[in-house]
């Protein structure tokens, strides 16, 4: 399986995350990623690199084949602010349309119905192809499904073998959304892990590649970030083999409490 699908929208199984990428390096990595086979590029208003991401996409000459996702930051979820910020994002990206627009983090001070209503309006007006969410809990997913007038195609959240996200994965899929995993290699924690290293050696893969395969083999799309061109190829080269049932179970056993990496002021009450 090379893509995950939700409501007729296909998301490539392996995409590129661009958090912390800046300037010419960001543009270069995005262009090289596309040339290496990536077809999903993820950015965000909060990353302050939409202009550079757009430059990389255009430089590749393959815009028509690429899904570009960006995310609205939590301070801009009021309908008027959201509309203005989405138009600003399009201007920075210099693209014809945003393929996938997500709420980056929930904002409890702004009614979800208002935010999703504004996002739906942007979709109907042709600024956005599809909409979704990020960092939504089970309760927030349930609320979103009640108030959204347009299909939500994905929930993007932290997901890797060291963090138990089974409840959230189940709830996301039950709602008809694709699961997109950020920090899928746990920001480098895969390297040096005894289990992942051993499994990787058996398949001629690195621990990071095993981490990514463990997720993609479950039908979870991943968006690993890297600033190294050689890592682009390594991260993308994870769909040409299968882990055994025993290996999948052993890797799942790496889960421990307290292994969440991304947790800050805008975080909801996690499941």
Question: Can you summarize the main beta sheet?
Answer: 8 strands, parallel
Which CATH architecture is right?
Alpha-Beta Barrel
Name the helix and strand elements from N-terminus to C-terminus, one letter apiece.
Answer: EEEHEHEHEHEHEHEHHEHH
Give a count of the beta strands, DSSP E runs of length 2 or more. 10
Helical percentage? 25-40%
Shape verdict: globular
Please give the radius of gyration in angstroms.
18 Å
Distance between the termini: 29 Å
Strand order of the largest sheet: 3-4-5-6-7-8-9-10
Mean pLDDT: 97
Number of domains: 1
Name the beta content range: 15-25%
CATH H-level superfamily: NADP-dependent oxidoreductase domain
At the first level of CATH, the class is Alpha Beta
Q: Pick out the low-confidence regions.
A: none
* Structural class by helix and strand composition: alpha/beta
Number of H- or I-type helical stretches: 10
CATH-defined topology: TIM Barrel
Task: Give the structure's gist in a few sentences.
The protein has 271 residues and is of the alpha/beta class.
Structure, described:
This protein has 271 residues and is an alpha/beta fold. The protein has a single domain, classed as Alpha-Beta Barrel (TIM Barrel), CATH 3.20.20. Helix content is 39%, strand content 17%. It contains ten helices and ten strands. The chain has helices at residues 23-35, 50-60, 79-93, 112-124, 138-147, 166-174, 194-203, 207-216, 229-236, 245-252; strands at residues 3-6, 9-12, 16-17, 40-42, 67-72, 98-103, 128-134, 152-158, 178-182, 221-222. The strands form two sheets. Strands 3-4-5-6-7-8-9-10 form an eight-stranded parallel sheet. A two-stranded antiparallel sheet has the order 1-2. The longest helix has 15 residues, at 79-93. The chain is globular, with a radius of gyration of 18 Å. The relative contact order is 0.14.
């Amino acid at each position: 399986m090379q893509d995950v699908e939700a409501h007729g929208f296909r998301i490539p199984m392996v995409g590129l995350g661009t958090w912390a990428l800046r300037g010419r390096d960001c543009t270069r990595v995005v262009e090289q990623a596309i040339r290496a086979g990536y077809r999903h590029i993820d950015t965000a208003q909060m990353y302050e690199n939409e202009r550079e991401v757009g430059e990389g996409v255009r430089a590749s000459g393959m815009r028509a084949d690429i899904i570009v996702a960006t995310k609205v930051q939590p301070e801009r979820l009021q309908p008027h602010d959201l509309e203005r910020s989405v138009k600003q994002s399009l201007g920075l990206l210099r693209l014809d349309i945003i393929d996938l627009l997500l709420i980056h983090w929930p904002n409890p001070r702004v009614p979800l119905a208002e935010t999703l209503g504004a996002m739906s309006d942007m979709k109907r007006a042709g600024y956005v192809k599809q909409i979704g969410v990020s960092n939504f809990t089970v309760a927030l997913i349930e609320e979103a499904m009640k108030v959204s007038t347009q299909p939500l195609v994905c929930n993007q959240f932290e997901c890797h073998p060291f963090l138990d996200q089974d409840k959230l994965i189940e709830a996301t899929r039950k709602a008809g959304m694709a699961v997109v995993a950020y920090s899928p290699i746990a920001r480098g924690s895969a390297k040096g892990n005894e289990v992942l290293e051993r499994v990787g050696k058996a398949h001629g893969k690195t621990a990071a590649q095993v981490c990514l395969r463990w997720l993609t083999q479950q039908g979870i799309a991943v968006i690993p970030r890297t600033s190294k061109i050689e890592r682009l190829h390594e991260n993308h080269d994870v769909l040409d083999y299968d882990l055994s049932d025993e290996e999948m179970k052993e890797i799942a056993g790496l889960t421990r409490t307290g292994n969440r990496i991304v947790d800050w002021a805008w975080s909801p009450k996690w499941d």
